[in-house]
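INPUT
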Amino acid sequence: MTTARELARAAGLDKLTEEHLAQLERAAANMARLVARLPKDLPAVAEPAHIYQAAPAKERGR
Amino acid sequence: MSELAFLTLAEAGALIRAKKLSPVEYATALLARIERHDPTYNAFINVTPDIALKEARAAEAEIAAGRWRGPFHGIPYALKDIVDATGLPTTGHSKILIDNIARSDAVVTQKLRAAGGVLLGKLSTHEFAVGGPSFDLPWPPARNPWNRDHFPGGSSSGSGAGLAAGFFPAAIGTDTGGSIRNPASMCGIVGFKPTYGLVSRRGVLPLSFSLDHIGPMTRTVRDNALMLQVIAGHDADDPASADVGVPDYTADLERGVQGLKIGVIRHFYAKDVEADPEQIAALDNAAALLGKQGAVISEITLPALTDFSACGQIILAAESYAAHEPWLKARPQDYGARGRERLLAGAALSAAHYVQATRWRLILKQQALEAFKGIDVAITASSMDPACRIDDNAALATNYWRQARMPFNVTGQPGLVIPAGFARTGLPLSIQIVGHPFGEATCYRVAQAYESATAWTMKHPVLA
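OUTPUT
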């Protein structure tokens, strides 16, 4: 279990006070609850919602 | 005085065009009302009377010379203080940007100026449109004009409060997880998050790049359509801007709902998250009313509300952390407590979590659009409850969950919130009308039919 202090150190958040670390701990716990809802069975081919495009649609295929 | 305060944009525009209302007198009257009442409601961070009167005089002179620009000419408006206006501070309601002066106008500001609008000032927001209400920032939080002890919603809190208080007939809000529609629900006004890409984001402080929307906030449906007409349109310099045509949003307003197919997303507020009984009754009554007017009502099913909320909150946390990381590292103490805690959440996410959430987003969007096949619009809840007390921390904490707004930030569909009566406490209730992508005109058509039948938007609070 990563502590808030370890999380902060890894993220380079070096100026967080004890109060801020307590906030990070609560925020991380909340995020963990959300992350647990992420689907585990996404098809391997499922794309992200935004796909990098090298050029605008009208310029592609020229 | 109160007659001018609660003129609709459409009424004021017609009077100004007919030279029966002076833009200077109108702006002066509203500035006096703001000076008298805003210390109680804190809608404004920065009132700009010099700019307002200069722009009002210019509008008056142009109209006198026969150069009427359109329905927004001479109309006072205000900007959420994450939207740039040249030479004015854009603070994000935060100590972090207290000295940040905008060097140019946001695109929406440019468009409102070009339409002849009269800028009254910059409005309170939750810190960086994410953390609030907060009492530990350089400015106090906005208060709800229906009861100043209650939350006005957020993050476009000053926009909602100022409209309900009669300080201006039009304001710009932004909406990343519901921040236009929440204050619309809490303050009993009309707020529209348009389709993602319809309104340029350029010149607006980002919170979450793929979820951020800019939109109009007004007191009536027609006014909202008139304001969206001004600010919608393609911007080649906003990479998310959609190159689509902008229809006449008022053309079909009075066509009624006869024959329209309206889906009710009831599971959002009756099963996934159970709404307050008075809010459920308001939604059921709205569906019944629209059915009596000839709409074909059916229930539709989308993925669970909690799935949309989780997906959207993960994306919001990751993207907002990316935007704020330098300040969170260098100046964490300069954030308010609520903003800091929400923004730090992104530090707990991995790259894989973010990508998985965006992959999930695409699936949720496809499932939502599939459910919309065969209907013209859907109605559902915006907020599950009337406004809680502004000092009720437990109720405020649930505010981000007891809502059905995030689904349409995730899908990018338009979501329009209009008043739907009042709770026994006297606080506003609301409904949300959701359209197909770029189906704003149909949302307005349904909203206008409902507004005309109920006249909730004609009720205004008595200020303390």
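end of record. The CA atoms of residues 28 and 58 of chain A lie 43 Å apart.
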